[in-house]
Write the structure tokens for this entry.
Amino acid sequence: MRVFKVPYDIKREEKIFGGYLSLRQVTYLMLSASSLSILATPLLMSFKILFIALISIFFLLCSFFKVNELSITFD
């Protein structure tokens, strides 16, 4: 049986979406965009805007912020 070595870089994520975004980043961006569903709740508009801003900023930081070339992941 022939064995082929497959090159795999474990230090970087594969950029699947357009060569710019990884699957993890797209997932966090989708979660950030889904925070707009809070608009359908019967809360005051100021609370809605505050919650949407907090959730969106959190997921955007998880998506793009890196510390020492390591991205934030929750395993």
Remarks:
- The CA atoms of residues 37 and 52 lie 9 Å apart.
- The beta strands are 66-67, 70-71.
